[in-house]
Amino acid sequence: MVIGLGRFGKSLALELMRDGHTEVLGIDSNEDVVQGVSGRLTHAVVADATKEDALRQLSVQESDRAVVGVGSDVEASILSASVLVEMGIPNIWAKAISHSHARILTQIGVHHVIRPEHDMGVRVAHLVRGRMMDYIEFDDGFAMVKTPPPHEVVGLSLRESNIRQKHGVTIVAIKQRGKGFTYATAETVVEAGDTLIASGLIEDTERFSELA
Ligand code: ADP
């Protein structure tokens, strides 16, 4: 179930439909918005998600996953999330537009709070600063980056270049120009034009990508 089919909720709902197995119920209070996705989701319904009765009529209590994509209307976001928590939906995600909004959603029992603008801003900052092509940050200061190889490792196998000891990062996968990614082994020889996926502490992955 996806509540609020704005830019965030709509992209999410359509992506969920892409595997061809997931059933997606989209709910929005705006009729035009619902019209806009008609035929592209399993069900799309006009309803006010802050009203428990309206949601019960749609049998949403049977959903095992719900996403509240309503953001800019903080009151509607909190009210609908609280209805879902009250119903005991086992997995609830909700989008927050500020730190305090995120805190309240967590306090009322939402399992996963996401801040798309904030998180994307942080991510893009790393891309802008370094030479990496992609960046994912995990908890505890751990990250995974997509980066060109540093000049010093070109022509050497991963064993010879000793990347893990020297730079503190582990090469997880490697991609030759025009080919797909394959898992890296100690024997993998890095060539100019390759793309690496490196994992490690944030500072180490950033420093490593700056050597490229
Ligand atoms: P985005 O920034 O992703 O476009 P918005 O917060 O602007 O997100 O859009 C949220 C969507 O949620 C809108 O389409 C709006 O009609 C819908 N919405 C707002 N309040 C409710 C509500 N009480 N019940 C259902 N949908 C709602």
UniProtKB/TrEMBL annotation:
Signal peptide interval: none
GO molecular-function terms, A-Z: monoatomic cation transmembrane transporter activity
Ranges where the RCK N-terminal domain occurs: 1-114
Transmembrane segments: none
Database matches in InterPro entries: NAD(P)-bd_dom_sf, RCK_C, RCK_C_sf, RCK_N, Trk_Ktr_HKT_K-transport
Pfam families: TrkA_C (PF02080), TrkA_N (PF02254)
Domain RCK C-terminal as annotated: residue spans: 130-212
Domain of life: Bacteria
GO biological process, alphabetically ordered: potassium ion transport
Gene3D superfamilies assigned: NAD(P)-binding Rossmann-like Domain, Regulator of K+ conductance, C-terminal domain
Protein name as catalogued: Trk system potassium uptake protein TrkA
Native species: Haloactinopolyspora alba
